[in-house]
Design goal:
heterodimer, A: 244 residues, Heme Oxygenase, Chain A, B: 81 residues, 3 helices, Aroma_sacti_dom (chain B)
């Protein structure tokens, strides 16, 4: 009798590990102490743009899973149960981020006002598409990446030391460093008990690889030194008169 | 990076005790395939065509990431869901 092959979660971890060196490097670069305060403020705003999609994405995935369950999809029941629980766990985290934004010396409008950058739309928006037009199981790849590269346990103290910010400005990072290891274990356990076909496992893997790619690009962007924003209309003009 | 001489570009099922062979494209993309464990090689040898295509596409894009952001072993994290 052949030994069982790697589990679904092991296969996902192996595949992501081949691609995550740049993400880990971009994260490390982003958290460098030099000039961290303005980067941390930008990080909070960017993460608000990501996190405010988390619960709505799971709600839509849950609605789709409930519909698929009625049609006899064997994944749909356990997926719906997981999503129901996880929605409760993630509820309100976008509000934490706005409180952190304020405590870090920015205004909530800086997170809420500007259109989120295209890389955030690529990260979260692709999930809306796959949930809506393919299968809600794809969302598990996204969650695996966002929870799999959560803040390290010592990140809060590193930020505090480099920026002098009070605890009140660090809640979201602190809480996620504590929470997300358990969340990731739950997700891997779900992946290993779902009756995934090879094609559905591939859906999760491709969703995860895409998420890792977009998240890397987001952290590369966040890690760049902050340039003072130009007042509207103050940039150099192109021959067509468009301000660049 | 050394490529196994028996590799003809297409993965094939390993025999007993034999290390799984990997698609040529993984070597050509510069992935550290010689350093992989047998379990990692098995996973990669069984990637679907679409998984392999997406992996190689992303690897090519990430290789263009600025040199100063390459990892140095410390894991800071920072993604939030």
């Amino acid at each position: 009798m052949n030994a069982p092959g790697p589990s679904s979660s092991a296969r996902l971890r192996v595949t992501l590990r081949l691609l995550d060196a740049e993400l880990l490097g971009a994260m490390e670069h982003m958290w460098r102490p030099d000039g961290l305060l303005p980067r941390y403020r930008r990080y909070l705003c960017a993460m608000h743009a990501v996190v405010r999609a988390s619960v709505p994405l799971m709600r839509r995935a849950l609605e789709r899973a409930v519909l698929l369950d009625v049609c006899g999809d064997p994944l749909a029941g356990p997926l719906a149960a997981y999503l129901r629980e996880h929605i409760q766990e993630e509820e309100g985290h976008d509000a934490w981020l706005l409180e952190d934004v304020l405590a870090a010396g920015s205004l909530p409008g800086e997170a809420l006002g500007p259109m989120p950058p295209p890389v955030v739309a690529a990260l979260a928006g692709s999930q809306y598409y796959w949930v809506e037009h393919h299968h809600p199981v794809a969302l598990l790849g996204y969650i695996a990446v966002l929870e799999g590269y959560a803040p390290a346990a010592d990140l809060t103290s590193r930020i505090a030391a480099a920026t002098g910010l009070p605890d009140a400005a660090l809640r979201t990072v602190r809480e996620h460093a504590a929470l997300d290891t358990g969340h990731l274990d739950e997700l891997y356990a779900l992946l290993d008990r779902l009756p995934l076909t090879r094609g559905q496992e591939s859906d999760v893997t491709i969703s995860a690889m895409h998420s890792l790619d977009a998240l890397t690009r987001l952290f590369v962007r966040l890690g760049r030194s902050a340039a003072a924003p130009l007042p509207r209309g103050a940039g150099p003009s192109t021959p067509t008169g468009v301000t660049t | 990076m050394t490529r196994p001489s028996e590799d003809n570009g297409s993965p094939r099922a390993p025999g007993a005790g034999e290390r799984p062979s990997l698609p040529d494209a993984l070597y050509e993309a510069g992935l550290p395939v010689d350093m992989l464990t047998d379990e990692q090689r098995l996973v990669l040898s069984e990637l679907t065509e679409e998984e392999l295509a997406v992996l190689l596409d992303i690897k090519g894009r990430l290789d263009a990431v600025e040199p100063e952001v390459q990892a140095h072993g410390e894991i800071a994290g920072g993604a939030l869901f």
